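Task: encode each sequence below as structure tokens.

Item 1
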Amino acid sequence: MKTITDYPVQVVTPTEDHIMWIFTGEWCLIDNYAPCLVKIDLGIGEMIYPTSEHAYAAAKAQNHYTHLAIAEQPDPGAAKGAGRQCLLRKDWESIKFDVMWRVLVAKFQQNADALAVLYRTEDRPIYEGNYWNDAIWGVLEQKDGTWKGRNALGQMLMEIRDFGIPVL
């Protein structure tokens, strides 16, 4: 099971070899907002989610009704927002990294175009750069020009790319 201890804090000075993205550009298909259907069972039976963001946000919900309401949001930003406002499952903090891992594996197993983009990153470091203060899943720009955070999403993407898609 994946936990926060698998993702130590990093301080990065980006170079042209680094891949950093913020929802745009040639790397957008590896982002959780990308329009890639994800079929997975996240505790209420197998469902098809419009994006990996929908799947992850819905998995937070304490009950089936809220899970479905989040999964049916019109876009990934709305799903993320709804997931932030719902009552969390009691075990959420202990399973959230494992849930993200399972969602990402399902996404790349089921979406050849997204997997091809991930493989095009070759051996370059991947960082989820962001400006919304998420130093767990990504990295945040610091005043000195470095980026700091756990970059759990980037590390999971590199693990899938470098070691292949595991069978769950």
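Item 2
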Amino acid sequence: MLDAPGRQESQSGGLLTMIYLGSTLFTMVTTTAERTGARPDPLQALQATDGAGCCAPAVVSPLPQEDALRQAAVFKALSDPTRLRMLALIAAQPASEPLCACDVESGFDLSQPTISHHLKVLREAGLVTVTKQGLWHYYAPAPGGLALARGALNTLGAGPTLS
């Protein structure tokens, strides 16, 4: 018999209380004597259940863990305005003409080590490639790098699936 949302009478005559904390369902049964007088220890009375009594279907993310880590690296790289501007500068170059790191540096009011750090983050995220010619490093858009970022956004719009 349901007497309030999340509460019903148990088979033993006590009151069954169900509480969700995150995705874990906890249940607590109190007897009539406990409800009228002494208070039970909530840590002993609460017990976790597997949620079998829950009627909501399990939700499965359409994004596997490995893909999430990869896409998070892309979003992290793109979240910095300087890196976003650097990527735009590199992507604007013809594919056959990679951009020298010194040319990237001249377009920003940052020190060479800071420029190198930002280019490294873009490279590790798979957004740019680097080739070394003598002492100079040349940067070009990575094949499929921008498609990876587009795909990450498309995945977010897919929504969860129910199992």
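Check on item 2: The beta strands are 2-4, 7-9, 15-21, 24-30, 47-49, 59-60, 99-100, 128-133, 136-141, 161-162. The longest strand covers residues 15-21.
End of task.
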